[in-house]
Every structure is written in structure tokens, then in C-alpha cells.
Amino acid sequence: FLQSVWESLEDAGYTRESIVKKTKGEVGVYVGIMTSDYSLLSARNVGKETNVFSNGISAEVANRTSYFFDFQGPSITLNTMCSSSLTALSLAYDSLKQKRIRLAIVGGVNLSLHPNKFLILSDNHFLSKDGFCRSFGSGGDGYIPSEGCGSVILKPLKQALEDRDHIYGVIKSAAVNNSGRSNRYRFPMVKAQAKVVNQALTEANI
């Protein structure tokens, strides 16, 4: 994730020093992570001569990024399952809107580090039986987990225009909710999904 943030800053035309100087360090880091199986890898080394252990604390991802770049805004790693990165983006959006920070780094990491992940997915019937993913599509009976890491830089549109940044997109609103007590724990409720979409559209005045 640290490499991804560095790449995002380079793409935006900033260095570690220039971004801290421009924002006075008021930069928040928001990272979504669903699974972190490093601790399972470490368990295999217990009692061995190598004694090489991995840190399974996901909070390190955001906090080490803030430490490395000297960002002094909120530094948050969160896990809301499949919505982790989008929830991170929503939190960053709110912080920018409330002027608590001048800039936000938002992203997510999803890695497949240990067979345990696939055993759990298989046991709970999440995996596609034919190897194809058809999210919400006809004939879909599961999904295929993948790996990835990415980050984006967020700032108020007015400031981005003044700074003559290249702008990839504009976020007009962000909303988060939960299905509450629904038909099934691991599946979204249509009414709850409609409600949160409507909330976002209303706040964006669309």
C-alpha cells in the first residue's frame, strides 16, 4: 500500500516533501482491508529455528503510511467486509467536507496469503462452481476472489482546480448503511440498498 500511495503522489505531480508543505501535514489516510492472514503464516514458524514472524495487525498499513509521509490527519484501517474500500472513501469524503483535513489518501488492499481463506469461502458456499464470476447475473452461484492494491488522492474540487491538478473524477456524495436484521447475514437487502442509493442521490441533489 505504501508503494501504491507513492505512485499516486507521483502521478499527481507531488513529492513527499511538497505534499506535506502544501497541506501542513493535514492529510488523512483511510485504508480498507478485509482479510489479513499474515498471522497464520507466522504460526507455521513457531518452534522452528528461523523464528520469522509476520505482523498481522492491519492498523499498521494506515499508520506506517502516515509515519513515512509525515501525514498528521486521521490514520484509519477499517474492515467492513466487501465494502471496506468504499467505506474508507466515505469517511475520507466526510472529513474533507467538514474541513478537518486538507487532503485524503484512500485505498484498499486485498491479498490471498493462506489456504484458510479459500477453505472458509468454500465452506460457506461463496466460491463459483464453474470458475466464472457473474455478480447479480443470471446463473451466478458465487464469485472468484482476487488480489489487488490501489489508492487515490482526494481533495475539494475548488482546491484541485486552483492547484491545476488533473482530475479523474468528482465525488458528489457518499453514503453508508447496513441491512440490519435481514433474510440472510451475508447477503444485502434490496430495500437497504435502495435506501442508501437514494440517500446518496438526495445529498448530491441529483
Overall SS class: alpha/beta
Helix content: 25-40%
> Taking Cα atoms only, what radius of gyration do you get, to the nearest Å?
19 Å
Weakly predicted, low-confidence segments:
none
Major sheet: arrangement of strands:
2-1-3-4
Tell me the β content.
5-15%
Distance between the termini: 34 Å
Biggest sheet overview: 4 strands, mixed
Sum up the overall morphology in one term.
globular
Mean pLDDT: 90
Q: Helical element count?
A: 8
What does this structure look like?
It is a single chain. Strands 2-1-3-4 form a four-stranded mixed beta sheet, with helices on both faces. 38% of the residues lie in helices and 13% in strands. By secondary structure, the chain is α/β, with parallel strands linked by helices. The radius of gyration is 19 Å and the shape is globular. The longest helix has 14 residues.
Topology readout:
Elements: H1 2-12, H2 16-23, E1 27-33, H3 38-43, H4 59-69, E2 75-78, H5 84-97, E3 103-110, H6 115-123, E4 148-154, H7 157-162, H8 190-203
Parallel strand pairs: 1-2, 1-3
Antiparallel strand pairs: 3-4
